[in-house]
Amino acid sequence: MVPVDFSQYGMQPRKVIAEASQRMGLDIDFFDTDSFDTDFFGGDLFGGDFFNDEPSGHKPGGDEHGAVTVEDSRSWQGNLFDSGFQRIQHARHLLSIGRVDDACDAYHPLIGQGANGQGPRDADPDRKAEAERILELRAALASALARPIDERFAALIAIVDNMKAGSDGDSKMLDQLGRLIVRFVVDQAQSLGGPDTPIAGLPLAHYLLDIGDLGEAQALLDQADDDAHAFVRADLLYLCDKHAPARMGYRRALLFHADEAGSRYIRDPEVRELVDVAAEEFEREDPALAWAVAAGMVQKVLPRSTSEHELAEVREMEQHCAQGPSRQGYQFIIALMEASLCRAAGDRKGEIAARRAMKRLCPAMLAVYKEDLT
Fold first, then answer.
1. Please, which residues bridge with residue 49 across strands?
2. Distance between CA atoms of 312 and 309, rounded to whole angstroms?
3. What's the maximum distance between 2 C-alpha atoms anywhere in the chain?
4. Same structural domain, 3 and 121
5. What is the spatial distance between Cα 109 and Cα 77, in angstroms, rounded to a whole number?
6. What is the rounded CA–CA span in Å between residue 212 and residue 240?
7. Is the Cβ–Cβ distance between 60 and 100 less than 8 Å?
8. What pLDDT shows up at residue 234?
9. I need a labelling partner for 302 at 20 to 30 A (CA). Which of 54, 189, 207, 337 fits?
10. How many domains are there within the chain?
11. Cα 88 from Cα 191, distance rounded (Å)
12. Do 177 and 293 belong to one domain?
């Protein structure tokens, strides 16, 4: 049987993460198993160091040298619990710190599968149902871990996504377990393929942002290729409440990395909705991402300011586009950028010519652009 234990992936504050966070101006509470809400899991129900498996004044048996064996510890734990409530609290704690196999040992008696063959200690149907769900989860995790390496990580991420839809009674412990699984996946994938390794088409840092590990994500991005992580870098800025640079980052990502899967998971809701805005408000029948950028710029969701260098980059992108909506979107953006540069330079003639090009491509967008000139 494949062992299922993620307890070693509880995040401890590390120097590299702290340094990355400091550069970002963040005060991050690192995810640390020592800071778990043990009261939620029954940490003070019994006194002593309950979650160290040894209450005060009581020690399990040992071998001839006094060392505690796994069998002794688990047998002693089983004798400790007088009710299903106490057992399930302990099982939840074990699960939340990644000790999935040990948690399942604690859950087993609740469905009549104790190692000693006894029936359930508590007939509560909700606790029995929870125990059954966790045993099924353990089987799914073991199956994923046994898959070939090119399938393993995506399978584990899919399980974490499914765990997020868990019941209210399970949600907190599953959220904490999910964090540990994600950290396991990121650590293993990075060790095998480096920081640019994608999982299911998304960068590793994307999954760290999902679990709120912003400092860890920044540390990973410090080692990664800029182009492969354009959307994640903008997402990180957005989550750090740096909205102005985030939107500049989103604009560049959408302009120059439009095929990246990350565009589907943009965390700024106003930016994420720009494709729909282009289709519904500006009647773009096939709203390519370039038209989404155009819609964002005329509505000032994305910045209008630009430079001659960036304009040259957009012109180069337009030249490589096939005829169709995407190329027309780039042509509109070029005209908009030209109008902005000419306006800033006081070139009235050039600005008028650029606006004519905008009108030819999308009169509705030009009208919004003109209304909002400041």
1. 54
2. 5
3. 95
4. yes
5. 12
6. 11
7. no
8. 95
9. 207
10. 2
11. 36
12. no
Q: What is the pLDDT of residue 17?
A: 45
Classify 49 as helix, strand or coil: strand
**What is the total residue count of the chain?**
374
Cα-trace Rg, the chain: 27
Residue 250 lies in a domain: no
* Residue carrying structure tokens 């000032």: 300
Distance CA 326, CA 347 (A): 28
E strands in 146-205: 198-199, 202-203
| pLDDT at site 372 | 79
**Residue 278 structure tokens:** 């282009």
The answer on 298 and 156 residing in a single domain is no
Q: What is the pLDDT of residue 43?
A: 38
Q: Do 14 and 139 lie in a common domain?
A: yes
**Is residue 320 included in any domain, yes or no?**
yes
- Take residue 45 and report the two structure tokens written for it: 């129900």
Write b or e for each residue in 22-41: b if 16 or more Cβ atoms lie within 10 A of its Cβ, otherwise e. eebebebebbebeebebeeb
In this structure, the answer to whether residues 8 and 140 fall within a common structural domain is yes
Q: Distance between CA atoms of 251 and 162, rounded to whole angstroms?
A: 32
Rounded mean pLDDT for each run of 10 residues along the chain, 374 residues in total: 85 47 50 39 35 39 47 48 73 92 89 52 74 93 94 95 68 88 94 90 93 93 85 95 96 83 87 89 78 94 93 92 83 96 95 96 93 76
Extended beta strands in 170-239, E state: 198-199, 202-203
pLDDT for the residue 373:
78
Q: Is 53 part of any domain?
A: yes
Instruction: Say yes or no: 179 and 283 in one domain.
Output: no
Res 39: pLDDT: 39
Q: Are residues 188 and 335 in the same domain?
A: no
Residue whose entry in the numeric block shows the structure tokens 């939340």: 96
pLDDT at 368: 93
- How many whole angstroms separate alpha carbon 268 and alpha carbon 272? 6
Classify residue 141: in a domain, yes or no. Answer: yes
What is the CB-side half-sphere exposure of residue 324 using CA atoms within 13 A?
9
Query: Are 189 and 282 within one domain?
Result: no
Residue 148 belongs to domain spanning: 1-193
DSSP letters, 65-80, are: TSPPPHHHHHHHHHHH
Angle between helices 100-107 and 84-96 (to 10 degrees): 170
Tell me how crowded residue 124 is: count the other CB atoms within 10 A of its CB. 16
pLDDT of amino acid 349: 96
The residue from 151, 177, 193 where one domain ends is 193
